[in-house]
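Dear colleague,

Thank you for sharing your sequence with our group. We've completed the structure prediction you requested, and as agreed, I am returning the results in plain text so they can be pasted directly into your records. Please verify that the sequence below matches your submission; if there's any discrepancy, let me know and we will rerun it promptly.
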Amino acid sequence: MLDRFNRHIHYLRVSVTDRCNLRCKYCMPAEGIKLLSHDDILSFDEILEVVKEGEKLGIDKVRITGGEPLVRKNIVKLVEMISKVEGIKDLSMTTNAFFLDKYAQPLAEADLHRVNISLDTLDPIKYAEITRGGDLNQVLKGIAAAKNAGLTPIKINCVIENNNQEHDAKEVLAFCKANDLECRFIRKMDLATGRYWKVEGGEGGDCSICNRLRLTSNGMIKPCLFDNQEINVRELSPMKAIKMAVSLKPRCGTLNHYNQFYSIGG
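Please find the predicted structure tokens below.
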């Protein structure tokens, strides 16, 4: 699919839940959030229908996100369902890796290709502070399990304040180099004020080559992360919703007052 600006749209990011086991300071409030009801969340069959209709229109890359996707019950089954859609050539997941030591091998057997893992520091105390209670050792176990399961290349997403010369960023980069991991630096963004930057080591944030749509866990197709527009796949057919989202995709991001990162998958 080509949008109005001749960008090739072939990538769908699928948020499967707004729930997360962590409370990262730049993502969630300390008290948590008002969670969506069970009926609001798309079922696996509904998600699969969107993926299948998207594939007919040229979607060949899918990333599963959250919240934290591994807290969604039977998530391995969804991976298996999507992996069987013939035209999907790249199937990945973004995770905080807390549960990855348990799920890495089953996910690989379900034909997940690779993972992106959030890791902002290698200091256990600071990690617990940033995530409000997270266990760094559990994340490191998850990274090791992903490597052993062949979910590679493993990409590490490191959130930074201003630049990659910050102490934690340099330690994460050194860790990645020593362990054959790819490192990406993501400067803190703000949906409501429209503050975003290009991802260092990745393609995110570069509007000129943006190739993606987003499906929220409650069934909204979004043309752009930094945009209020969204189309309900339950009100329109998935195919009509996808086509409309492509037609509405803006040249560049502006503001998003309807969503938060925990509900849209970043």
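Summary note from our side: The mean pLDDT is 96.

Kind regards,
the structure core
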